[in-house]
Amino acid sequence: MGLFKSYKVLYLLLISLSVLPFAASADISVEGVFQKGTELAGSIIIFLEVLAVAVFLWGIVKYISASGNPEKRKQAKDLIIYGLIGMFVLVSFIGIIYILQNTIFEGPPPMQYTPPDAPVIPPK
Question: Which of 31, 67, 80, 96 could form a disulfide with 59 if both were Cys (CB 3.0 to 4.6 A apart)?
Answer without folding.
Answer: 80
